[in-house]
Structure formats: structure tokens, C-alpha cells
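Quick one:
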Amino acid sequence: MSERILEALMQLFALVAKVDGVNDNGRSVVENFLKQQLNAELVNKYLDVFENYLEKHQKISKRKEGKERKRTSVNSVKVLRICTQINEELQQKQKIVVLIRLLEFTFSANYSEQEIEFVTTVAETFNISGNEFRESMAFVVSNDNKIPDNDNFLIIHKGDEAYYDKAKEIKNPLLEGAVKILRLEESGNYIAKYCGEEAIYINGQVIENNRVYFLAHGSSIRNKKLNPIYFSDISSKYRTLEETQRIDFIVDQLEYKFPAGNTGLHKLNLADNSGNLIGIMGASGAGKSTLLSLLNGTLTPTSGSVKINNIDIHHQKERLEGVIGHISQDDLLIEDLTVFENLYYNTKLCYDGLQKKIIVKKAIEMLKSLGLYEIKDLKVGSPLNKKISGGQRKRLNIALELIREPQVLFVDEPTSGLSSRDSENIMDLLKELALKGKLVFVVIHQPSSDIFKMFDNLLILDTGGFPIYYGNPVESVIYFKKATNHVTANESECHHCGNVNPEQIFNIIETKVVDEYGNITEQRRIPPKTWNEIYKKEIDNEEINVKSIEMPKGNYKIPKKSSQFKVFFIRDVLSKIANTQYMLINFLEGPFLAFILSYLVKFYSTESGPDATYLFRYNENITAYLFMSVVVALFMGLTVSAEEIISDRKILKRETFLNLS
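Output:
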């Protein structure tokens, strides 16, 4: 936030404050709000700003005592002006944070109608809907162990006191009191409050009774009696998928050996379902790409199986057509076509029999949803000759798969080569897909703390293809610390900033032995096989049971070979016409070589004199000319074909994965 916005917010808090002053609880609300935004030094600075505005506001209020209506009107205008100023800079999620803190501030002691009127003005100016405002106010005000019977509310409690028809419940017989959660659907925020006497921790920090806290991706709620309750457990309760739309992904005793005999993946058991974002991490050579190829059906395992809703993906592929999507790390775009043309012709290859206007509509809607509509007419260009940014290229690659509407999506290194901002945007997109009911697997290397927390589950492979962890990503830090008897084994993230350092995990896994001279050796303290044995003992679940669920039906239908040929032909012709260099070389190369060839084998008659004539049938070089013409034609054909094969081999590989001709 800018300095101007923070000062405006302090003035807003002061305007909403009571005329007779602010109690300690109210001040702590302002202080906690500032601590979420600033460091300790700046917190004190802006608390002083708040106190100055508060003192100034109270002096004016006392001078105008007896003129309540006029004072209220003036303050309402000030509130409106400040909110309009704030509106220009804050995102909707940040506006919700401001509103919740204002509500807490207002209800921290006795409140008046004037203060409620001010907060209502703030909500209206921030374009927060009436329902969301009323639900937020009810949540802040409540201080008992009950919640409204509403779809957006969730309660974690013993479950022996109240039962709800619409509100969600997570029952835990050991919990004293209740943790209440409200989902603010329009802004995507989740807020939590604990009503009880026990020490409850959110992200490792003790929370105060009846104080509102925001839950972000990767958050966890725990205490000494409770098993951790993760953000993914909470968000999954709000999903409204029908049972027939559910995807159960089961990996049973999966193992793979390369043709040479060395093991690429040791036995792996895994179970997950739709609505989750799964991260796959590991050092170089750990077998991440091999695992991804096994899970998406490209490689056939040596033993074990991979099933989607009890359908084997390696032996019953025809029943899973269109269900699995794969986004390669490689760029699969046709460089000489526009953004729209790339997606349009890809869509035509996914839906047989759809009218052109419907295909165009689908492509346009997809481009709009991924923020690519404004650049739809730009040529894609090559990675070296960029016409669009790296983040836009990655989103377009994702669009090529999403247009098919796969239920299970595999993504290989989606953030490689991107800036931190573009990386977070891509991962936000994948997380949004998971929240809409997709099951997304992502191979990722060196994620930031925010990206790391987005994953619902994390699979870690060690060198040699040994699985060594599967579970909540934030919990993985504690798991490896406890395995090595670390001093701070119960700490998973920084107490001050809440960040998690994923590199810390690999530092523990790959800790080297120190010799008697204090030098670090190449030998690891805990080898991969030992980590795998710990994993089998602590985490691995070999007994995986799943009931048979009907496979969701999509609209994906491969066109006939004749239709495919037509699309391929039009697409390739357009891409060649758009490539000026290609057109010039191919149109000029032939005549140029023909001219040189004809000049070299030119026939000179032995006759002399003015009556000497050239006769084709007497040309002794015709045979040599024809032979050399065939050689030149073959040379041109081979060079053009080689260029096509090399440039399009990755696209051909993807189209083979889609069972296209």
C-alpha cells in the first residue's frame, strides 16, 4: 500500500471511532491491521498518525456538540471522499480486509447508529454486496458457538450441540469451543474466528478469542489435541460437485524400470480426487518427468496400475478419451499464426461436428477467461523473436488444453523461465481450475512461499525415483525436521512473515556427512533408500479402496481423418503464407538453382557461321540436366521437410497424445 492510502485508512478509522475515545480493544484492531501490512517501525509511525487524526476528530466533535446531525453529515462526506480515494488503489480482497477490520473496530465496544451508517457507506463505496456485508457483520458480532444456517458458513466443533442443513460442519470430538469460518464468495476471502478457552494456532501463531483472522492458501488450524485442519480441507467443503462428476485418481503399487534395467520409479501408492492441486517436487534425476509420463498414460509401468474412477489409463485408454490433459514444458504454439488462430484450429481438432460460430465463441470465451483477448490478433512469434510475453505464451499453451475440458490435468514446469509475478499468475490460474473441480498435477522446481502454499498435497521424490513424502506441503517441513530431530521441529513457517522456505526441505533431505576435519563430504547423511523406508512406515498407505464412480461425460470428440486433414492443410498453408522468409526462400530458391544449373550445362553447337542454329534434340547435356534437376528437387524437398519435422516435432508429439491422425 502507498503512504497516501495508509494515511487515508488511519483517517477512516478515526472517523468511525467513538466520540468519547477508543478502548484498548479498538486500538489493538488497528495495530493488528497495520502489522499485516508493515514492519514494526512503520506500525508505530502509523499508530501515531491514527492517534493524531483521532485527537483532531474528537476536538472538532466537542466543538460541535449539540449539532449532531450536521457533524454526522460532514463526517459522512469525509468517509465517502476517503473511500473513493482508496477505491482507486486497493484490490477487492484488500477492501474486504479493510471492511472486516472496520467492523471489528466498530463493535469492539458499545456502538451507535452513526458508526454503523459510516461502515455501511464504506461497504457501498467499495462495491461490496449487501449479502456479503450483512454476513460479514453477523460473523464479526457473533461471540457464541453457533453460526447461521447459511451455505457460506462452516463450523469446526464437537458436533453434539447443533446440526445444520445448509451450513458446513467439520466434527472433532476433542475440540473445546468452536472455530467458525465464513467464505466471502465474491471476493474469494475466507475468515475464521475461535470461540473457546483453548490455545488454537493458525499458521503456528496463537489466535485470540473472538478475533477475526484471514485464511490464505496453505493455512492450517491446529492445537495439541487436534490433527491439523488445512485450508484445502476447509475449501473442499464448499465444493458443490455432484457425485457423478467426482474424479478419483488411484495409483496402486506403481513401479517403472528402464529398458536397461535400472529403476526409474520405486513403488508408489497415491490417492487423490477432483478439486485438488498436487505438487510434484524433487532434485534433478529424481524421476519427476518419468512419473508424469506414467501418470498421464504416455509410459507403460513395469508393474502396478493407475486408475481414474476404476478405469485403468494404460489398458482402457479408449474409455478415458478427453479426460486427461497434458501441458508440456515445451512451447507447442505455431509461431506464424496469431493467438486466436492457434486456439481456433486446436479447437476444431477437439470437437467434431461443431458449427464454426460455436467454435469461434468457445475460443473467444477461453481467451477472455485467460486474459488473452486483447492480444488475439498478434502473431505468436518464436521465443527468440517475441511478439507476446513469456507469461502470455504459457497461458496460451494452457488454453490449448483447457479448451478440451479435461478432468485431470498434468502440467510440467509451468513457471520455468517466467518472472515471479507471471509465475504467481499462472499458479493462480491452475489453483482456480482445481477449485472448479479439476484434478491438477504440477511438476515444479524452486517455488516461492506463496506458490508452495497453494498446493493441497505435495509429492516429493528423491534421487533414483524414491517417493519420500506425500501430504500437506506446509506439514512437510515439520515431517522432515522431526525425522532428523531438528531443534525447531514444530515450526513450519516464519512467525513474523508467515513464509515457508521450500529449499529448507531439500537442505534437510540432502544433508552431507562431515568428516573428522570438519569438511563436508559427498556422502549423504540419510540416503534416498532410508528416506523411502521412513516414508513407507509413516505415510504410505498400501490399502486404497475406492467405489466405482461414473466417468464424467464431456463434449470432446475427435474429427474424422478427412476433417483432420482439412484442418491440418488449412492451418499449415496459413502458417506458411504468414512466414515471409519461408515464402521468399521457397519461391526464389527453385528459379535460382534452375538458372545456375541451366547455365552450367548449356549446350554449344560445334557448327559455326551465321546459319548455325540450336536444336533441342541435338543437345547432348539433356540427360545430365535432367539427372541434376532430380537431385536438386530432392535436395529442396528434403531441406523443407527436415525443417518441418524439426520445428513441428513437439506439436506432432502432442497431437499423437490426443490420438489425432
